[in-house]
Amino acid sequence: MAADTKVEEVSTPKTIPIVSAMGRWTLEELSALRTSWQLWLSVCANWRKIEWRATIHQAHEVTNRSALLVAVVMAFTGAILIVQGGTQAQRIVGDLSPIGPAFLQLLIREFGPVITAFMIAARYGAGIAAEIGSMRVTEQIDALRLAGAPPVQYLVLPRIYGGLLGMLPIIVFGSVIAYYTGAVTAFYGFGVGWDTYFSTSFVKLADVAVGVAKSLTFGIAVPLMSCDAGLNARGGAAGVGQATTRAVIASSVLVLFLDLVVGTLGYLLLG
Amino acid sequence: MLRLVTNVGEVALQFVHETGGVSLVLGRLCKRLFRFKIDGDEFFRSMRSYGEQSLLIIMLTAAFTGVIMVLQTAVYVKKFGVYDLVGWFAGFSTFREVAPLLIGLMFSGRVGANNCSELATMRITEQLDALRILALDVYELMILPRTLAMVLSMGVLTVFGNLMAVLSGALSARLLFDLEYNTFFFSLFDRLQPEDYLVGIEKALVYGFVIAIVSSHFGLNAKSGSRGVGRAVNAQVVACAVALFCVDYVMTSLIR
Predict the structure, then answer these.
(1) Taking CB atoms and an 8 Å limit, are B256 and A241 in contact across chains?
(2) DSSP secondary structure letter of residue A8
(3) Most buried residue among A5, B58, B112, B228 by CB atoms closer than 10 A?
């Protein structure tokens, strides 16, 4: 009998590396989503505890520190979209006169908020994550907690309110720059006159409402994801680096997702 | 006022400095390209790890993009009733412009940042100097294979992303405007030329190259100290974004 019983071989299942890596990534992301959700809940629970000075300081950081980056990127965006839209319009409609108003509508509703929010995520979000992340790995967050200063109230809330205050102005600023570089491109590239370009005939109140709603949501989303990445940083300087890249990617994906959600809601509710 | 002038000057100097650094990396890379001795193992390893790192995030991004582009057509659909243009509009802007750009931004945030932090860590722990002492060339060993891997992965990822965007676009058009799948795909295939698709892929390949040299430059020139790596990675993400938009503008106006 004893001879028959073999030691049962523990066979590790063969895995396709890329699939298992993707599965692992999904699981990690889901658990990370849970921590961001918890952070969001505690932010909601403490929403009254505004620190005005810190909030104003953060709003200043959002707008001022990223202004140049946003200006450069949005200037290119305006030119690119006009060239692209002009090509599109020439091929299908053969009439370039609606290019200005159509571009303004697209800018207000879609590209102004999204591209600017991406840039804010790359600069402000990464900055927050690095700051809070290095506080976390040097145990300053624990020190704050010990001193009776909850990090959500002193670190996270001012950044979220700062984002909420600062995002709309910087998006308007970026969109204005894109609109004017678009005008220059349309004039010199396609010969569209200033009068035809600067017309608001395509823009309705619904577009402005959707644009503002998007700006405000992104203003909350970017600091939230970045604070979460920073608060969950682990293990020394390398951990802080990882937290920064996490913050950029997570904020960007959430921005796109919220863009989709708010855009769909706007279409269904406002048209 | 003086502070403003100082700031602008500093930014301009920094811009010139980084541009010069990136072109140095580009020049050295080109020199190695002629000899073309490439480390095959590193190439395949990088290809695989780039795919693992970014495939899911890029598919997600592309899926969102498809829906957003279809939503944007809603205005025209309502105004002019052009249901047969939805597929074309969504496809045209996604393939030519939005998909490569967004995929490039995500790729730079994930793969570029990883490459940069790895090189920066090697730099501040003096491993790069050790390589030089062993008469090993870091460009041949790491940067050339990685650059090729990034260029190729961007191409492949954009093909995947485009597919994802079209599928999610068709689905959302169906749900939002009750547009038949047939109408969507017919207007996509009928009005779109193969060039429109290929322009996007070309752009993606160039973006891959840009991300590779920019991230390598910031990694190779990281300042020492534990904060150096973090700073390098942050600067890399911002610089990549600016470089991508700049290259995008040049390519868009060259290829009409």
Answers:
(1) no
(2) P
(3) B112
